[in-house]
Amino acid sequence: MDNLVNKRINEVLKGNQDAFEEIVTLFQHRLYQVCYRMLSNTQEAEDIAQEAFVRAYINIHTFDQKRKFSTWLFRIATNLCIDRIRKKKPDYYLDAEVPGTEGLNMYSQIAAPGELPEEEVERMELQERIQYEIGRLPDRYRTVIILRYIEELPLQEIGDILELPLGTVKTRVHRGREALRKQMGKM
Amino acid sequence: MNTCPEQIVHYMHAYLDGEISRAEERELKEHLDNCTECKEIMNSLSESITLLGSVAQVKAPESFVGGVMARLPKEKSRAGAHR
Q1: Where is the domain boundary, A88, A109, A144?
Q2: Does the keyword Membrane apply (chain A) (predicted)?
Q3: Of A150, B19, B21, B58, which sits 20 to 30 A from A78 (CA to CA)?
């Protein structure tokens, strides 16, 4: 697949915009899925996933064809998702780490944003409930959990996407799993 | 409260990442057989992962590709690019 993708990229680089359409077609569902899981909103997911492709197109000359295109594309998309999440939250500074703690931030001290009453959560359909629980994860854990368990990517590839060392990815996956376990305790 | 050896939690995660050694796995299994509290933690970790895996694959809407193509900047004129 990477060969085909690189062939199309070279055509785009020569000025053939139509060649980009095939690239979009190939990756649209994976990219949309990741954005939807990150943002829990179909309209925003469509907007951000489309924007990610537009940015990829504009910056296509910076893509190193020795690398995996999907990694590069996912990096653009996850960065856009995180920007969007932070812009929506006027209190995004709560995400800053509390000094002297390992990965603990102010969210640990307060209820998750958008937390719903228990009765309402219990009435949810399974699919809706899972998305709700993903959406309650702090964004640094949410990203790795989505890439690991919904995209089913290897840890190393997640590290490449997020430009994080493998050890950090592992720690975030572990913390994300712990957080989910506690959230989902009563399912 | 929890007096279990600290490495047990690490083993649980190593197990879930498929990165546990045989010796560690044996130690983990032995512990879980004798500790209901840890066994419960292990089970609920696995369960939440299974639930994530059961999530329906969502697809981009029909109009998606067309939408991207319409948002792309206008093609540069070839004449301008090659002088």
Answers
A1: A88
A2: no
A3: B19
